[in-house]
Amino acid sequence: MENRPFDLLNNAINKEVLIVLKGGRQIRGLLKAYDVHMNLHLENANELVDGEMKTNYGKVFVRGDNVILITP
Amino acid sequence: MENRPFDLLNNAINKEVLIVLKGGRQIRGLLKAYDVHMNLHLENANELVDGEMKTNYGKVFVRGDNVILITP
Amino acid sequence: MENRPFDLLNNAINKEVLIVLKGGRQIRGLLKAYDVHMNLHLENANELVDGEMKTNYGKVFVRGDNVILITP
Amino acid sequence: MENRPFDLLNNAINKEVLIVLKGGRQIRGLLKAYDVHMNLHLENANELVDGEMKTNYGKVFVRGDNVILITP
Amino acid sequence: MENRPFDLLNNAINKEVLIVLKGGRQIRGLLKAYDVHMNLHLENANELVDGEMKTNYGKVFVRGDNVILITP
Amino acid sequence: MENRPFDLLNNAINKEVLIVLKGGRQIRGLLKAYDVHMNLHLENANELVDGEMKTNYGKVFVRGDNVILITP
Amino acid sequence: MENRPFDLLNNAINKEVLIVLKGGRQIRGLLKAYDVHMNLHLENANELVDGEMKTNYGKVFVRGDNVILITP
Fold first, then answer.
1. What is the assigned CATH class of domain B5-71?
2. D10 vs C22: CB contact, 8 Å cut-off?
């Protein structure tokens, strides 16, 4: 197995991603950094409710254990 | 015991799998990569609701701790 | 203490088992492999609802942290 | 502190115990083996509902993280 | 910091304690042993409901991760 | 980064603190000891309900994983 | 990948941050210290309910596993 799942995140650096969190929260923003715990640093980040932008966070740090999925 | 459960995932690389996540979410897609935490990289991934495709994610990274089961 | 709980699983390899998962899900199938995290590889696996077969998964990988109990 | 909690389990090997699990499930059976994760191997095991035997499992493997308490 | 929280438990050995568990369960009994995971061995243990004794367990092993608090 | 969050707890030893626990429980008492898991030893401890003292625990050991926040 | 998510926290030391916790709790305050578990030390900290200040904690220690996100 040559590929690793984290390669997908590495290729998404400086690109816009959608983050789905446990509890239903969704955040869209520019992925600036991640680590092995899946802690994330996003910029221009907005929380989405029913697909609509609700809260503009600007920069945001997300603790990795809340993440369900990340899609570029 | 010669077999290991991860052999099943290894044989599913580049094949379509159905992922059932905690909280009821289901995702169908092409398995591109996994790791020992069961983090997954899927492509052509769609979220299913009641067996119907709902959201087309394209590429998606799933954090392993959300996984209940994976079936090729 | 000479016996270890995993001996029970080892003796169940290639036999039919019933798996009870957190959240109420039950799966019956042939146990092909397990590991120390209780990750499982089942074949001819069916999900049960109220004791009736509901979904035929064929081969399935179950992430160990979802398991409540396994009975041969 | 000379005693260790696991001594209680060690003395219960081959004796009948009542296991109370998270989520309200209760199992009564003969304790054949345990390990440090509190994984259990029970025989002649029955699930109890409101103190009444409901399901006869025979042999059962219980994943330790589900256990609340064990009483001989 | 000279004191350690576990000193409190050490001093409670062979004394009656009240254990409050996640999910609302309360157990009163004689503390015979504990370990670093907060696994407990109690004797003369009774489960309390609304402050009233409900179930007499005699000896009981409590898995440490269920504990909220212990008070001598 | 010179400061560490635990310095705040260290400075609170022998002072009154309010502990907010998961599940809504609040305890006010004198902080006697803590460890890296945030296990706590409190004295003169009272459980609060709606800001009113409800149960006087005297000495209490709190398992660290229940803690949300501690405020001196 | 040169950036690390924790750089964002490091740059937020001595600045006001908004902390969103599991269970819906939100706290606004001055970030004085953090560690790798995301334990936090805040000062001039206020709990917010529906965006309004509700409880003035002054100094507060937050256990890291409760954190969903932190935004400067």
1. mainly beta
2. no
